Amino acid sequence: MKNKNYMVFVWAALVALIIMSIPTAIRLGPEMIGKKFIDSHEFQGEMEGFYYTLSTTVLNPIQFDEAKGKIIVTDEEIEEHRMRYGNLSDQVMNIQEQYEGRITEAEESGNEQLKETLIKERDTKIADIELNFESDEHVEKKVLAGKVSALKQFLAENQQSARSAFPIAYHLTDVKTGEVFTQGDVDVPAIYKKTFGEVDDYFKANTVISESEYNHYSVSYYDDGYELTAADFANIQQPVRQFEGVIVVSEKALQGSYLKDHLASFNKKKYRNYTLWILSIGALYLLLTKIKFKKKWVTENRFVRSYNGLKIDVKVFIFMFSLLLTFEFIHRDATGAFFYNDYYSGAWMDQLFWLIALAMSILFLAFQLVNSIERWKQAGVFERDFAESYVVSFLKSFQTMFLNRTLGVQMFILLIGFFLAGFGFAIVAIQPFLILAYLPAVFFLGLPVLYIFVKRSAYLNRIFSSTEKMANGTLHEEIKVKGKSPLANHARHLNQLREGVQISISEQAKSERLKTELITNVSHDLRTPLTSIITYTDLLKSTNLTEEDRLKYVDIIDKKSARLKTLIEDLFEVSKMASGNLELHKQKVDLTQLLQQALAENEEEISNSSLDFRVQLPESALVADVDGQRWWRVLDNLIVNALKYSMSGTRVYLYLDRVGDRAQFVVKNISKYELSENSDELFERFKRADTSRHTDGSGLGLAIAQSIVEMHEGDMQIDIDGDLFKVTVEIPVE
């Protein structure tokens, strides 16, 4: 500190002294200034208790023999006693279960006398329970006996309270009967004396003070569940008796009672607070005259630069902490926590400690307020401090955290869980008994949260590693997807991306292969008949041909031309189907009849072949909404395909039947050529089972059939098992 800046500490201490004195003056001043112990609330409360004890135990006590005859038992109490342990069957069963084991043990040990005693005792209790449910009078006697016992307990406790009261002298006379009650010498010098007389000032001795007392006793005084109710106390209390006379408390009696320590404490508190209030008046005088607050105590302080380097939210936290600490001191002072109790020798040291702590808190508040006002007077400083605060930075990050809402919520819950775990540990360190609640929370909440956090972190690292491998071109390793968390969804998306890249690469390679095969196959299939046409056309130009040779060459040219025409038409039809330009003309057609027609069209080829066609058709019509011409093409293509590629001497099976709401057409045959396990390749254009391409056909039959089936919202599937070739076609029917 420079010059006299240390005076700020003196100023803060004086302010703290005044702050601590104001609440005590407000709270304790009326009780202590010009007052004695006998004027205190504590002593007055003790006297009220003595008056009550004197009334109920000496002047107007309940007479037991008279009072027990006024106790009543209500129907509700009878029913409550009867049903206290359940209905009749429940109570009997309970008694039997209680004695069953003991009787068995006595029987096994050979103690017949004990066994008979237990049986007799059990039967007696059961009989008593049964009598409870048969006779209200029986229950009433038991309840009445219990309530009488509770009354005796109440009166005994009252007498015990009277014996423990501090010794007070009194001389009181019943104004009605003249009966005199006296104790001690009322003529000795007294520190407290109260005279009773006249009508308004008579000492009124009640048996029970008020109706609220009834409710208290009905809960407090009972025997084995038999309660004295408010109605009972109302019945047994006696008429109020009025007394005149005097009650005296001498100095000797007070010093010899348990109130001696209370008297000493009251005097110590009073004189100590007198000292505090005098010092606070002096402090106020100094603050108004000699030690006025100066702004330079803050602005010229060497800690200003370091403090200004803190973020604004840290400054706010320090300010609020200092403010709350100050309010806590004031609240404690207002409730008498500092200067109200003095039952131990270290009270003065405690009060000095709190005075220093409050002074430091006030010093921090003054420093922060003056510094902030002076700093934020400069243009733009507050705005800059606010923009650079931790809170603003946190809010921006927090907003970004919830771009993926599910992941953000889960991370937020994890953070809250760790925060609560740390907070709970701190609380347990302060209050160790709370560990009984903290440990279950750790085992059932904290550890599961920690397990989830570690597991998710490990999973995230594995995803990072797999992503790096994917970026380096390793696409065959799949990321394991675990659960349904956002991380699992991210892993799933990465797998989809990996599969998409693989499929893209595979499709690209396949596209290149198919393009090459298509060009090769189309060139081969078109060139073969065209070459034959050109060759035989050149031969026809020869003048030396016989008529027989000429007719033979013309026939070959005609067949090759028809073959070329069929190939070109199939190619155009597949192109139309692929582009969606082929229109269907649907009508209701009997599929059974259509299949019979297709078989009839190919009857000559079937008869000339070495194949055994086994056909199974439904007995009734199978009607579907189809383009009859196109659907006939499907059937014909499949039949022709079986004729071309079935092994000689084998059977070909054709089935047509209804399956649910669909018609199912199946063709099964044994292939003469070795088939690829990939049945999808047979749907490709120009693909044949005869890979050497020695058979007739365009290689488009199955591709055309599949396209027609799909246009009819049907399904066509090829199954291959070794040389077994099976085609299944399904289409919706009515």
Could you describe the 3D structure shown?
It catalyses: ATP + protein L-histidine = ADP + protein N-phospho-L-histidine. GO terms for molecular function: ATP binding; phosphorelay sensor kinase activity. Its EC number is 2.7.13.3. The protein has 734 residues and is an alpha+beta fold. It folds into 4 domains: 159 residues, no CATH class; 220 residues, no CATH class; 68 residues; 150 residues, Histidine kinase-like ATPase, C-terminal domain (Heat Shock Protein 90). Helices cover 63% and strands 11% of the residues. It contains 25 helices and 14 strands. Strands 1, 2, 3, 4 and 7 form a 5-stranded antiparallel β-sheet that branches. It has a 5-stranded mixed β-sheet with strand order 9-11-12-14-13. The chain has a two-stranded antiparallel sheet with strand order 5-6. A hairpin with a 2-residue loop joins β11 and β12. The radius of gyration is 55 Å and the shape is elongated. About 5% of the residues have low confidence.
Top keywords for this entry?
single chain, alpha+beta, phosphorelay sensor kinase activity, 25 helices, two-component regulatory system, 5-stranded antiparallel β-sheet, transmembrane helix, transmembrane
